[in-house]
Design goal:
single chain; about 200 residues; mainly beta; five-stranded antiparallel β-sheet; four-stranded antiparallel β-sheet; 1 helix; about 5% helix; about 25% strand; elongated; disordered N terminus
Length: about 200
């Protein structure tokens, strides 16, 4: 069973492996705490025997001298796997792999950002990225302060299905060109063509 003192110190650990156990370990000696992996997550027991459902650290750094390094949040399908940002213990933002079922064809476990109110109540999901196709869904207004460089083949506005670049035809000397322009703009949703 790994132990750690409460004093402020830095320790390099190559790896720690926990085996799930149903109950808390024995109370550690004075000034120490014991980490253990219960069936509902990582917990620790202090030198009074009190069990905490969470582990608090001032900073956590994942570092490797060379090569790739990663941190993993692993859970079963159709459950949230999350990181939360809090103020005084109250959630402000949460980053999730959401609980959408993995029903095949790469569906489910979509990535999303949740926002929370001052009282921790849920406010909404400003961004969802779908695992199956990479599409991003924005809940509210998107403000672009720089240039918008659209390299795709299709575009659509105001709920119009995206379509390809339109071609305006007809003579400028008559109404044919104007009629063609109105049709082209209406095709991508920029206007409603009510001309006659």
């Amino acid at each position: 069973m790994p132990t750690a003192t409460r004093a402020s110190q830095s320790t390099n650990i190559s790896s720690i492996q926990f085996t799930e156990q149903g109950s808390a370990p024995a109370t550690p000696a004075s000034g120490y705490a014991r980490l253990y992996f219960a069936n509902d997550g990582l917990k620790w027991v202090d030198d009074t025997g009190a069990v905490s459902p969470s582990l608090e650290v001032q900073a956590l750094i994942v570092k490797k001298a060379s090569g790739n390094v990663s941190a993993t949040v692993n859970g079963v399908a159709a459950t949230y796997r999350s990181f939360e940002y809090q103020t005084a213990g109250v959630t402000r933002w949460a980053l999730h792999t959401n609980n959408a079922a993995e029903a095949g064809a790469n569906a489910g476990s979509n990535w999303q950002i949740n926002r929370h109110a001052d009282d921790d109540s849920f406010l909404g999901i400003p961004l969802t990225i779908f695992r199956s196709n990479g599409n991003a869904l924005f809940e509210a207004e998107v403000e672009i302060d720089g240039d918008l460089d659209h390299d795709g083949s299709n575009v659509g506005f105001y709920g119009t299905a995206p379509t390809s670049k339109q071609t305006v035809t007809g003579s400028r000397g008559g109404n044919a060109a104007l009629a063609s322009l109105c049709t082209a703009l209406a095709a991508i949703g920029l206007i409603t063509d009510s001309t006659s």
